[in-house]
Design a protein that fits this description.
By secondary structure, the protein is α/β, with parallel strands linked by helices. Among the domains are: 96 residues, Rossmann fold (3-Layer(aba) Sandwich); 157 residues, Rossmann fold (3-Layer(aba) Sandwich), CATH 3.40.50. It has 12 helices and 13 strands. Strands 8-7-9-10-11-12-13 form a 7-stranded mixed β-sheet, sandwiched between helices. Helix 3 packs parallel to helix 12 and helix 6 packs across helix 7. It is globular and about 85 Å long. The chain starts with 25 loop residues before the first helix and ends with a strand.
Length: 390
């Protein structure tokens, strides 16, 4: 029976073959105009990585689209390694050093393609150095930040192979400039300078101590070599472990140079003051960190005044540190009020490595004789460092 149309009903419309228009996404509509605009604005004279000097690309040379998409190959990158603690109590020092290296790279020419490559050295410094050396493009290395994190001799030799001036550590300085981190020359200069400063305060001998965590195998070997070669000093130098260097009680008139880390230095300082010993304690540049101030402050705050024989603030008397500086230090310090003076050498080292790898002319503060000098600073309970004598 044929279909019938009842009242109020409509026959369905016959199907058509025309397809409805599809709505294109907005991003597709804008893609081609955006690409056209980008190619129009592309400089005609830019030189792509790998292009011979004088060969132009862009509108005057090769296809501008290929020029726009040209990327620098990974092999052209020049990583600058950083050996620093990024875990544990000393991690703040590591991130400060990383910031310094990033600023140095930012100030270098973009064509140098410098890249920071940071590895944690807090647990196994040797393993960290080995991982850095796996990169065939490694151009230079900053660090470690303290000598107790020096890598094993074999890995140190590989770091030397990077080239002259391409392995710097902020502690490895002498009056004549940078020294290799595993060269005892910087250690001899530090101890000699500390002895002169201590003698100026009336000390009759200088005791050296590293603490349990301060003498790794590489640093212990460096200490032994420095001791064997001898150190010029105005007062006798007694190495820890000698009969004249007791573990806690210090002979009257002696000063102590701490070559370990800051946390253990705070324990030693607190023990001296709680035992009523006023002997001067000198910290190596890497030991005068935030950990020292925090740990010592907490230890003295918890002790009654009678334990130290004076108010807790008086227990900070006789605490000093040493920091290397050159002619550029005053300008640097004026731009960074309150910055720890020992960070200056760290920032100079980062800038010098970036300049060396980028092959650009840079003012090398270590060029010439007597460019650097050790300056003594007095430590305060407020975490300040005051030039000795102020």
């Amino acid at each position: 029976m044929p279909n019938q149309v009842g009242a109020g009903c409509r026959r369905p419309a016959a199907p058509t073959t025309r397809r409805p228009l599809r709505r294109l996404p907005l991003w597709r509509l804008l893609l081609w105009p955006a690409l056209t605009l980008a190619l129009t604005l592309l400089p005609a004279g830019c030189v792509a990585p790998g292009t011979a000097p004088g060969a132009e690309t862009g509108a005057a040379g090769r296809d501008p689209l290929l020029t726009w998409l040209d990327l620098r190959p990974v092999s052209a990158l020049q990583p600058i390694g950083l050996l620093a603690p990024f875990e544990g109590l000393e991690r703040r020092q590591g991130y400060d050093a990383l910031d310094a290296l990033r600023r140095a790279i930012a100030d270098s020419p973009p064509t140098a393609a410098l890249l920071p490559l940071a590895l944690d050295s807090s647990r196994d410094p040797t393993r960290a150095a080995q991982k850095l050396l796996l990169d065939p493009n490694l151009a230079a290395v900053l660090g470690p930040l303290a000598p107790h994190a020096l890598p094993a001799p074999a890995d140190a030799a590989a770091l030397h192979a990077l080239g002259a001036g391409r392995w710097l550590a902020p502690f490895a300085l002498t009056p004549a400039g940078w020294a290799a981190p595993d060269d005892p020359a910087w250690l001899q200069a530090l101890i000699s300078g500390a002895a002169e400063a201590a003698a100026g305060q009336g000390a009759t001998q200088l005791l050296l101590a590293t603490g349990e965590s301060g003498a790794t195998a590489s640093f212990a070997a460096l200490l032994t070599q420095a001791q064997r070669e001898g150190i010029a000093a105005p007062i006798p130098i007694v190495w820890e472990g000698d009969p004249a260097s007791p573990a806690l009680e210090l002979p009257p008139g002696s000063a102590l140079l701490w070559l370990g880390n800051g946390a253990v230095a705070a324990e030693r300082a607190a023990a001296l003051r709680l035992a009523g010993q006023p002997n001067a304690l000198w910290l190596a540049p890497w030991a005068a960190d935030a950990l020292f101030f925090e740990h010592l402050g907490a230890a003295l705050a918890d002790a009654p005044d009678a334990a130290t024989g004076a108010a807790a603030s008086d227990a900070w008397q006789g605490l000093y540190t040493l920091a290397w500086q050159d002619a550029g230090f005053d300008t640097w310090a004026a731009e960074r009020p309150g910055a720890a003076p020992e960070r200056y050498a760290q920032e100079v080292a980062a800038a010098q490595l970036a300049a060396t790898v980028a092959n650009v002319a840079a003012a090398d503060p270590s060029a010439g004789a007597a460019a650097w000098r050790l300056v003594a600073w007095q430590l305060t309970a407020q975490g300040e460092r005051l030039p000795l004598g102020d």
